[in-house]
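ARCHIVE CARD
CATEGORY: sequence design from structure
SOURCE FIELD: tokenized fold
FIELD CONTENT:
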């Protein structure tokens, strides 16, 4: 009995030590969840035809309009059935990067700044018009982001890259009354802003906008970067407010962004090591 009494304290110390070690092992994963800045609510894997998905727009009734960057075709994807309901052809082949909706009309952006208007896009024979904007004439420009600003009856266009503008990214406005854009941007996002300090590398490589959206409740602008996955949130005038870094394991190649009328955020990813997908996510904001 004496030997057992001598052994028991040693066993208790050993067990306590193991518990301490296990508690330390759990802390990094808990911290990672806290610091990630977002949470994935649901994921939809898309069919092969949407491998190159480049833009999404929430239609309503759990449906999302999608474009991909090779063919002039609009797809309607049902989140409830996880299926493509129908497709609508609007143009020939091209580099189509963004889609947005205003009422029954859809607008699709080609990367050179050309905009396609698809009136009554869900109709059997929708009318299609093409607009050569002033941004189309700017040298060395690549525009990938598009969203509707219904309060001002215009579309916003986010520039991914442009010749001779290495230290800022421009957001242009396309007036739906005149069906044209101004030669000057609505605002510029300076890559020297303090919000980008946590992004490693050269300043000119800090941010490459691939999509833009307007939050239906706050009016904030959400600008998505797919090259090094992250999301910039700005005020209505373009003043940076917060930068949320995404994990590449969750966002392989994010290029599409849209909101439901209630403010639910959806982001789409092109196919990489896994099928293309749409993610419903929530953000852990540090500012409002």
């Amino acid at each position: 009995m004496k030997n057992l009494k001598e052994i028991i304290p040693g066993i208790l110390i050993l067990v306590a030590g193991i518990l301490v070690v296990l508690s330390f092992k759990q802390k990094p994963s808990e911290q990672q969840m806290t610091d990630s800045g977002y949470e994935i609510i649901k994921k939809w894997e898309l069919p092969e035809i949407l491998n190159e998905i480049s833009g999404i727009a929430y239609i309503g009734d759990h449906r999302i309009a999608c474009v991909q960057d090779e063919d002039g075709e609009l797809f309607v994807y049902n989140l409830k059935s996880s299926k493509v309901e129908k497709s609508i052809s609007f143009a020939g082949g091209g580099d189509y990067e963004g889609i947005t909706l205003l009422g029954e009309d859809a607008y699709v952006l080609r990367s050179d700044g050309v905009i396609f208007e698809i009136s009554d896009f869900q109709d059997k024979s929708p009318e299609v018009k093409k607009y050569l904007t002033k941004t189309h004439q700017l040298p060395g420009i690549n525009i990938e982001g598009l969203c509707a600003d219904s309060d001002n009856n215009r579309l916003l266009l986010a520039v991914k890259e442009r010749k001779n503008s290495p230290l800022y990214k421009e957001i242009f406005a396309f007036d739906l009354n005149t069906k044209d854009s101004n030669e000057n941007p609505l605002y510029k996002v300076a890559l020297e802003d303090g919000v980008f300090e946590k992004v490693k590398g050269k300043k000119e490589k800090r941010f490459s906008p691939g999509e833009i959206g307007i939050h239906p409740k706050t009016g904030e602008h959400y600008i998505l970067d797919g090259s090094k996955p992250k999301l910039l949130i700005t005020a209505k005038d373009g003043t940076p407010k917060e930068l949320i870094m995404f994990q590449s394991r969750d966002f392989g190649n994010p290029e599409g962004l849209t909101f439901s009328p209630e403010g639910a955020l959806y982001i789409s990813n092109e196919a990489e090591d896994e099928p293309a997908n749409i993610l419903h996510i929530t953000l852990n904001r540090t500012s409002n």
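CARD ANNOTATION: The chain has one helix and 21 strands. Residues 105 and 119 are 5 Å apart (CA to CA).
SHELF: design records, drawer C
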